[in-house]
């Protein structure tokens, strides 16, 4: 008797799944290699810009603490995440080790915070239709976030960025504001914006664990081909001292608004 093994059915599905997983990992590795800073080329000086929000915030995943702050892929080398904090904001729900596994994003102080243009520029990309999903601030939620992140990375960049705006600031510099609230965008592609102009609101769309702003600068308009650029903000630290730089992880800070333009001066 000769036994034969069919490659159809469950086995074929399993092999196809493994092949898709390996192909996805290889594509991500290639992205990281291609978008990493060029070897032997020193990093450019940070671009000093006003922060695109007001009030007191806390820095997370900061390039002041580690570079790359996220990963080199998607031009995130010098990206930062920030969440609303301070005495004038309600407390953020703590990480839930047991229960609840998810929460509604409206429970978080960052959700709905106004975000503005860091400088004069032109909108080169805008997406505002992705849903604001439940938070992932629990062990079960983080596992789901990792699985979701891998699946999202295989599709269009908007699946990772969620609702977002990309601004051309000129001189080969582009700003990205990601994870915005669905339906909050106030600008469209091709629109010229002025520094401080409202762009949208902080949300929990895309590859996001909980409501926060993901912000980065890059040297091109496409997150899949550009490289990240360092930046700095004028801000006050928790002691009230003025700083120019990027706050480190868990540091609270308050942006210092840019000086107003002289009367009659027009945007770029």
UniProtKB/TrEMBL annotation:
Q: Which SUPFAM superfamilies match?
A: Duplicated hybrid motif (SSF51261)
Q: Which UniProt keywords apply?
A: Membrane, Transmembrane, Transmembrane helix
User: TM spans, by residue?
Assistant: 12-32
Q: Where is the M23ase beta-sheet core domain?
A: 154-218
Question: Per its UniProt record, what Gene3D superfamilies does this chain match?
Answer: Glucose Permease (Domain IIA)
Enumerate the residue ranges of region (Disordered): 238-268
**This protein is called what?**
M23 family metallopeptidase
List the source organism.
Streptomyces bohaiensis
């Amino acid at each position: 008797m000769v036994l034969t093994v069919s490659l159809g059915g469950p086995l074929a599905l399993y092999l196809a799944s493994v092949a898709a997983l390996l192909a996805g990992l290889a594509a991500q590795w290639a992205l990281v290699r291609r978008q990493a800073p060029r070897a032997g080329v020193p990093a450019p000086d940070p671009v000093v810009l006003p922060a695109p929000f007001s009030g007191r915030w806390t820095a997370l995943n900061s390039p002041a603490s580690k570079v790359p702050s996220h990963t080199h892929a998607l031009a995130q080398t010098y990206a930062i995440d920030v969440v609303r904090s301070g005495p004038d904001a309600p407390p953020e729900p703590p990480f839930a080790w047991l229960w609840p596994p998810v929460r509604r994003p409206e429970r978080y102080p960052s959700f709905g915070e106004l975000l503005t243009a860091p400088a004069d520029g032109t909108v080169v990309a805008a997406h505002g239709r992705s849903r604001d999903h439940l938070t992932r601030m629990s062990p079960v939620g983080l596992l789901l976030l990792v699985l979701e992140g891998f699946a999202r990375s295989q599709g269009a960049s908007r699946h990772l960025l969620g609702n977002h705006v990309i601004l051309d600031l000129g001189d080969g510099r582009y700003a990205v504001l990601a994870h915005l609230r669905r339906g909050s965008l106030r600008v469209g592609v091709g629109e010229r914006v002025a520094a401080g102009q409202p762009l949208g609101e902080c949300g929990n769309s895309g590859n996001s664990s909980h409501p926060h702003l993901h912000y980065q600068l890059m040297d091109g308009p496409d997150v899949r081909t550009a490289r990240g650029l360092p930046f700095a903000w004028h801000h006050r630290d928790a002691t009230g001292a003025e700083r120019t730089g990027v706050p480190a992880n868990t540091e609270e800070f308050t942006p210092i608004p840019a000086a107003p333009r002289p009367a009659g001066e027009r945007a770029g």
